[in-house]
Amino acid sequence: MEGKKTPLYEEHEKLGGKIVEFGGWLLPVQYTSILAEHKAVRTAAGLFDVSHMGEVWVKGPDAMAFVQNLVTNDVADMIEGQVKYTPMCYPDGGTVDDILVYKFTAEKFYLVVNAANTDKDFAWMNQQLGKFSVTLENSSPSIGQLALQGPKALTILSKLTTAPIAELGYYHFLPEVQVAGIKAIVSRTGYTGEDGFEIYCPIADTPVLWEKVMKAGQEEGLLPCGLGARDTLRFECCMPLYGHELSDKISPLMAGIGFFVKLTKDSFVGKEALAKQKAQGLAQKVVGLELTGRGIARNGFSVKAHGQVVGKVTTGSVAPTLNKHMALALVDAAQAVVGTELAIDIRGKDVSAVVVKKPFYKRGQ
């Protein structure tokens, strides 16, 4: 198997992780079982290796203006120490990526991008430089990242740092803290729908940090978690995955994340196209489906109404917390109303499904 290795590759092998190739990286899909790891995050805590994610520094007098033009969300009102989720679009409204924006100062931002898109995103950002007085630095190769997620995440991380992480608001970060004696950036963010933290540290320190966090979580039921649980957790919360619910053909409006598109901003790449989409009405939308028949929907399976293909599945899986078979699908807008009965072609057999509200799961339900 070919692919890039994170600094924790040997750790994953030691723990019996089943390694797969994902976005050019060799990562564990699971250690014990996806269901056990999923449950650990919903009830206790899970630790994920997300060192494959990309990180780009934006520095200079025009840093804020550059980021404001680059993304669809509004970064002008961000305070120092705040994080914002945002799509980043092409001029035609298609999605380049969905990213996290960390504001250090008005002249210093940190952008976290999806692993498989890092090179593409960095090239795109460079194309948008224009007259902005900024420098871009792709620091991905030098940074390791862990995601500690679940209701016990705060208890576990508190054992390793004296920093005031309990007071840290959701989608806020501390720029320089010591975690188990290692210098890190700690943010209260994640991709699971639970409380939790993402910890960025120098790549060489990542194995020690992983070991210390695992040890601190022993009594709290902490499990190492792979890509499988990461996907089922984000899926239950209907968080989009690039290449599935978002792509160069699927705009943020189509994906149902229009809240993060601020058309009131002066200008940003893709604004005109997105404003037009909104005004004219969307041709297709990403909806939630509950399968009422037997079978598991998979990415790419056809969705039908009255025997006619009206869309395709973007993600399908069992939703472990709900114990139901669910799917996300891009369908014609006319079929996107909650309660609409549809069918999914699962290996030549039409399995009945119904459009339901998103997200499927919310913390505390």
Notes on the protein architecture:
With 365 residues, this protein is of the alpha+beta class. Among the domains are: 4-49 and 141-236, Probable tRNA modification gtpase trme, domain 1 (Gyrase A, domain 2), CATH 3.30.1360; 283-356, Aminomethyltransferase beta-barrel domains (Elongation Factor Tu (Ef-tu), domain 3), CATH 2.40.30.110. 19% of the residues lie in helices and 36% in strands. The protein contains eight helices and 20 strands. A six-stranded mixed sheet has the order 11-12-13-10-4-14. A hairpin with an 8-residue loop joins strand 12 and strand 13. Helix 2 (34-43) packs across helix 7. It is globular, with a radius of gyration of 21 Å.
Q: Which term fits the overall shape?
A: globular
Rg, rounded, reads 21 Å
Specify the biggest β-sheet.
6 strands, mixed
The average pLDDT score comes to 97
CATH superfamily of the domain at 4-49 and 141-236: Probable tRNA modification gtpase trme, domain 1
Overall SS class: alpha+beta
Low-confidence regions: none
Measured as a percent range, the helix fraction is 10-25%
Count of beta strands: 20
Distance between the termini: 41 Å
Query: What's the CATH class of the domain at 4-49 and 141-236, please?
Result: Alpha Beta
- What order do the SSEs take from the amino end to the carboxyl end, as H and E? EHEEHEEHEEEHEEHEEEHEHHEEEEEE
Strand order of the largest sheet: 11-12-13-10-4-14
User: What's the CATH topology name of the domain at 4-49 and 141-236?
Assistant: Gyrase A, domain 2
- How much of the polypeptide forms β-strand, as a percent range? 35-45%
Second rung of CATH, namely the architecture of the domain at 4-49 and 141-236 = 2-Layer Sandwich
